[in-house]
Design a protein that fits this description.
One of its GO terms (biological process) is proteolysis. Belongs to the peptidase C1 family. GO terms for molecular function: cysteine-type peptidase activity. By secondary structure, the chain is an alpha+beta fold. It has two domains: 63 residues, no CATH class; 281 residues, Cysteine proteinases (Cathepsin B, Chain A, Alpha-Beta Complex). The protein contains eight helices and 15 strands. The strands form four sheets. Strands 3, 4, 7, 8, 9, 10, 11, 12 and 15 form a nine-stranded mixed beta sheet that branches. It has a two-stranded antiparallel sheet with strand order 1-2. The protein has a two-stranded antiparallel ribbon with strand order 5-6. Helix 5 crosses helix 6 and helix 5 packs across helix 7. The longest helix has 23 residues.
C-alpha cells in the first residue's frame, strides 16, 4: 500500500543475517532495536516513508512484548516476521471461512459416520514422534491456511496407511476446490474449510505432490486450476473424511489419541507474537474463529503443570516453538463463547448471526480428518 517515491529501494537484508541465530524473548531487553530486526528477518522496504512506518510499528510492539514477558504469564511473546505488520496485514493469513463452516455444519453430514466411544487415553501423545509429520510450511500472505491444514492431515494419514510420507500440494486444493454451497467465499486465498478441501481431493481422484504442483500463492495471488492426471498425477487418495461432533471434548481427545492428527479451527487473532509456553490469551467470550491448523497431540507442561494442546501452524518454523504453538487444554468443562462475527471475511447469504464455539481459542468447534 506504499507507493514508490524514488528509484532507490531501501533494502536492509544482509547476507550475514542468515548466519545469525534467532533472538529469543529473554534477549530483547539487551539492546535489541529495529535495525537488528531488519537484518535478522531479511526485511526490505520500498521507501524511506515505509521504513519509518514499519519502525514505529515495531517499536510499539516491542514495548508491548517486553511488558508482557515481565508480567509472568504462562507464555512468552517474541519478535518474528509479523512484528512490523499491521493488524490488517496479519489478518490476510487467517483464511478459515467461519460462515462457510457454520453453513456446512447446519446443512451437511460427513462422508463417514463418527464412531469413537469414551475410552481410556494416554496422558500425552505427540504424533511428531511417529514419523508421520512433514516439516513446517509457510502459507505466506495468502489466506490459504485451510488448504495447508487439509494437505498436512492427508500427508499424515497417507503415511500411516502406506509408510510413505509425501509432501502434498496445497496449491491444488487452493486452485481446484469448488464451492458448491455458494457461500460467497472464493476459496484459495479468500478462505475456505477443510471439508470442502477433502471433497475437492476426492472429486478429482487424489492429491498431487508439492514437487509436481508447487505452491504459488505465497504473495496472495489466486491461480486457475492446473490439475492433470498426466502432469500432476495424484500420489495420495482419499476414501472419505470424518467431521467430529462440534464443541465436544471427549470425541476430540479420543480421535487425536487413537486416530491421528486433526484439522481444527481456532481464533488465532492473538497469536501473532507468540514465541513459547502454554498460550491462554484468546478472547473466550466472543472468539472470532478465523484460522485452520493441525492438532498433533497434547500433554502437560513440566514447569507450570498446565495441560496443553500441541498445534502445528503454517507460518514457517521461525514462528512460535519451531512453527508450533501449545494452547491451554481444559480437561473438563471447556469454556464456551459466541462468535458474533461469523460473517467476517467473504461470508454467506442468510447465514447465522452468531455461533457458539467451545474450548481454548474455539478449538472444539470444527474438527475433521481424512480417511485413506
Amino acid at each position: 500500500f506504499f507507493v514508490m517515491r524514488s528509484a532507490v529501494v531501501f533494502c536492509f537484508a544482509l547476507l550475514i543475517a542468515l548466519c545469525v541465530a534467532r533472538t529469543r524473548w529473554f534477549e530483547l531487553e539487551h539492546d535489541y532495536h529495529f535495525e537488528k530486526y531488519v537484518a535478522e528477518f531479511s526485511k526490505a522496504y520500498e521507501s524511506e516513508e515505509e521504513f519509518h512506518f514499519r519502525k514505529n510499528l515495531f517499536e510499539q510492539k516491542l514495548a508491548h512484548i517486553i511488558a508482557h514477558n515481565r508480567a509472568g504469564h504462562s507464555w512468552k511473546k517474541g519478535v518474528n516476521q509479523f512484528t512490523d505488520h499491521t493488524t490488517e496485514e496479519f489478518k490476510q493469513r487467517l483464511g478459515f471461512d467461519m460462515q462457510m463452516a457454520a453453513a456446512y455444519h447446519a446443512s451437511s453430514v460427513p462422508t463417514q459416520k463418527h464412531s469413537f466411544v469414551n475410552t481410556q487415553v494416554p496422558d500425552s501423545i505427540d504424533w511428531r514422534e511417529k514419523g508421520i509429520i512433514s516439516p513446517v510450511k509457510d502459507q505466506g500472505n495468502c489466506g490459504s491456511c485451510w488448504t495447508f491444514a487439509a494437505a498436512e492431515c492427508v500427508e499424515s494419514y497417507w503415511a500411516m496407511s502406506t509408510g510413505e510420507l509425501n509432501v502434498l500440494s496445497e496449491q491444488q486444493i487452493a486452485s481446484c476446490t469448488k464451492n458448491p454451497m455458494d457461500c460467497g467465499g472464493t476459496g484459495g486465498c479468500g478462505g475456505g474449510i477443510t471439508q470442502l478441501a477433502y471433497q475437492g481431493i476426492i472429486g478429482v481422484g487424489g492429491l498431487a505432490s508439492e514437487w509436481t504442483y508447487p505452491y504459488l500463492s505465497y504473495q496472495g495471488m489466486n491461480y486457475a486450476c492446473m490439475f492433470s492426471n498426466k502432469t500432476t498425477p495424484p500420489v495420495a487418495t482419499l476414501s472419505g473424511f470424518q467431521t467430529l461432533p462440534s464443541n465436544q471434548l471427549t470425541p476430540l481427545m479420543n480421535a487425536v489419541a487413537q486416530q491421528g492428527p486433526l484439522a481444527v479451527s481456532v481464533d488465532a487473532s492473538a497469536w501473532s507474537d507468540y514465541e513459547t509456553g502454554v498460550f491462554n490469551g484468546c478472547n473466550q467470550e466472543t472468539p472470532d474463529i478465523d484460522h485452520a491448523v493441525v492438532l498433533v497431540g497434547y500433554g502437560t507442561d513440566s514447569s507450570s503443570g498446565m495441560n496443553y494442546w500441541t498445534i502445528r501452524n503454517s507460518w514457517s518454523p521461525s514462528w512460535g516453538e519451531d512453527g508450533y504453538i501449545r494452547i491451554m487444554r481444559n480437561t473438563e468443562n471447556p469454556p464456551c463463547g459466541v462468535d458474533v462475527t461469523p460473517q467476517d471475511g467473504t461470508g454467506c447469504n442468510n447465514g447465522p448471526a452468531n455461533v457458539t464455539v467451545c474450548g481454548t481459542c474455539g478449538i472444539l468447534y470444527s474438527v475433521t480428518y481424512p480417511e485413506v
